[in-house]
Amino acid sequence: MTITEKILAAHSGKKKVDAGELINTRVDLILANDITAPIAIHEFKKIGARDVFDKNRIVFIPDHFAPQKDIKAAEQCKLLKEFSKEYNLSLYFEVGRMGIEHALLPEQGLVVPGDMIIGADSHTCTYGALGAFSTGVGSTDVAAAMATGECWFKVPESMKCIYYGKLNKWVGGKDLILHTIGDIGVDGALYMAMEFEGEAIKNLPMYGRLTMCNMAIEAGGKSGIIVPDGITRKYVKGRAKREYTFYKSDKRSRYVEVREYDCSKIPLTVSCPHLPSNTKPAAELNKVAIDQVVIGSCTNGRLEDLREAAQIIKGKKVNPNVRMIVIPATQQIYKQAIKEKLVDIFIDAEAVVSTPTCGPCLGGHMGILAKGERALATTNRNFVGRMGHPESEVYLSNPAVAAASAVLGRIGTPEELGL
Amino acid sequence: MIIKGKSWKFGNDVDTDAIIPARYLNTSDPKELARHVMEDADKDFSSKVKSGDIIIAGKNFGCGSSREHAPIAIKAAGIQAVIAKSFARIFYRNSFNIGLPIFESEEASEKIKEGDEIEIDADNGIIKNLSRGETYNANPIPPFMQELIAAGGLVEWTKRKLSRKNGQPS
Fold first, then answer.
1. 20 to 30 Å CA-CA from A185: which of A218, A382, B95, B163?
2. Interface with chain A: mutation pick from B26, B94, B109, highest number of A CBs within 10 Å
């Protein structure tokens, strides 16, 4: 069996599961945010369950339109707070304690290897980086699981992506996953578990792994996963709030497809409007002027991402035609960024640093594009209207390319700045 | 169940931001969401679409976010069903969970033209194009999904499951 099949089998009380089989599994953690939880709460009440299945395994995080951007958003956030109080949920994160959900949960050790996690947010697939099965579902799925502690699944086929060799300078997890999506398309892994492995993955730090698994959904994947190893062990040590299990894929596991990549041929990669699969080498886009740069999100708002951007922009200024918005994904990241003087570097460069929020990534607040404006962002989607006006444009890149481009005023690479 | 209506055509990879842009997600009121349905794919759609109409799309319909607001907006706009070459998985789940009928059919997706009158025999997965006198087959709906439809969605299905567990008749 693959690691995915093993985790699903263990959570459905079976010795073995096969791809295509429909199973009912126990879930270790359920997650919803201020966009998706209000519907989940409404549907949960309709079910009429006496209580939630476990008050310590339901996470409510207002992070999308929080800090509350308008009255309607405030009303939605209030529903989460009230429900959490009513059912005595221990994992409700108020502004000040919250962070972007998929950065916060691994950081706090609330998701652990071997877990089975569902979240009413498509980027729930992020936790595969820890060797967990995690996937996005809808609000009604969350409502049902809050009542029963269970969820139905079709066991996915697995697809393996192997990355050989060493990464080029400034190339990271974001480039690997953008390149892969560019190769297989936005439905190239539809319904599948994407398993990432190879020399480059073995050497890829946890933040890069989180970025890769985070964007499995952008290839249509049900999940992304990396077999846990020494890097995983080091990451979860001292954080994990629960017992965990390391699963690995058997040598004779079945994969519907195996894709192999030579990392020496993977350049700094940018996704052009309006699909993440529309990728081009960053170096070929040096005529594309930009109005805004966003560094943040559940994809690339971690401390190492900020360090990378700071390293590029240190001692330089953001181009006068550009506004640069940096969003640390959690309070802890924010605090550490202050301590390491990364925030000083950004402010000295005339960038703005925001409190944690998903904000501009989904066109919510904190950096919305006007008609005809163009952004380069370290976020995950560049669909029509994703960051604002339907006639604005979003390009996606890693933090180093985004920071270099902020200085250049157009899409460019760190090399152009002599880095 | 027989579903009959006029068709509206969309292309491949229609994402959930096109179906219901995130800027409207500060509410989950179905009526308000319906006012903006498909807005970033066709800004006049909500004023053109009539109750009972059917959406026809290409591959990977509903890709992107997990927002259940997408099938809710479609349903609340009075659209009776969506036919596509394929669906993104969370949208697929969500549609069955909330009771929006969806059908996978490559042939129907390719051959139906905007404005065609369509009749869907949901139980047997047969799609008739009344304007062109053609018939297409939809992929069979998996047994569990049929169970969900028969129960009236995931909430009702879960209710029954819980009452069985608690030893009460459903």
1. B95
2. B26
- The two domains A3-261 and A267-417 share their CATH topology (first three levels equal): yes
This prediction's pTM? 0.97
A143: nearest CA partner in chain B: B155
Residues of chain B contacting residue A369, judged by C-beta atoms under 8 Å apart = none
In chain B, whose CA is at the least distance from the CA of A69? B26
Longest CA–CA separation in chain A, Å: 63
Residue A177 makes CB contacts below 8 A (sequence gap 6+) with A211, A212, A214, A215, A216, A218
A73–B26 C-beta distance less than 8 A: yes
What does R_g of chain B's alpha carbons equal in angstroms?
Answer: 16
Q: Which of A67, A362, A101 is nearest to B23 (CA)?
A: A362
Q: What does the pLDDT read at residue B1? A: 86
Residue labelled with tokens 């997650």: A31
pLDDT in tens, B49-83: 999 999 999 999 999 999 999 999 999 999 999 99
Nearest in space to A394 (alpha carbons), one of A405, A408, A383, A402: A383
ipTM given for this complex? 0.95
Task: List alpha helices for B8-130, DSSP H.
Answer: 16-19, 30-34, 45-48, 69-76, 89-98, 106-111
Q: Where are the alpha helices (DSSP H) in chain B?
A: 16-19, 30-34, 45-48, 69-76, 89-98, 106-111, 143-151, 154-165
Q: What is the CATH number of domain A267-417?
A: 3.30.499.10
What pLDDT does B170 receive?
A: 42
**Measured distance CA(B139)–CA(B136) in Å, rounded:** 10
Domain ranges of chain A: 3-261, 267-417
CB contact under 8 Å between B90 and A386, yes or no, is no
Burial of A199 (0-12, 13-18, 19+ CB in 10 A): middle
Which member of B13, B21, B158 has the closest CB to residue A385? B21
Pairwise CB contact (< 8 Å): B154 & A141 = yes
- Please answer yes or no on whether A137 and B93 come within 8 Å at the CB atom: yes
The CATH architecture that domain A3-261 belongs to is 2-Layer Sandwich (3.30)
Token reading at A143: 């409502």
**B38 Cβ under 8 Å from any chain A Cβ:** no
Residue B18: list chain A partners with CB under 8 A.
383-385
